[in-house]
Amino acid sequence: MREQHFFNLHDMSQGIARTLADGLDARIFPGENVMLSVVHVGPNKSGEVHSHAQEQWGVVLEGSGVRTQDGIEHQVRAGDFWQTPGNVSHGLRAGPDGAVVLDIFSPPRDEYRQTGSGFGD
Question: Looking at residues 65-93, what average pLDDT do you find?
Fold first, then answer.
């Protein structure tokens, strides 16, 4: 296997850098049919509630927060995960210790294939 197909969640030099909002920094790993995003969310930081056409799954790897999905708030902590259908509004506010979230998109989001900022184009 080729080394270019192996990554580490904690190596912030890997992936495509994207600042989603103040205190929300992501590393994006695009594939042909799926895209992973490792998001570091600072203590008590949050991004805008938004939606997109892609299906999204999320896993809290570290920390805690409140996941808003379709207008409903859900308390989440390390080990919790969820599925968000396309075009459903969602967002996350981290708890007092911050959070690390692994997001999985299918199909990949075109706007996340290059360095940038924000949740959309």
Answer: 97
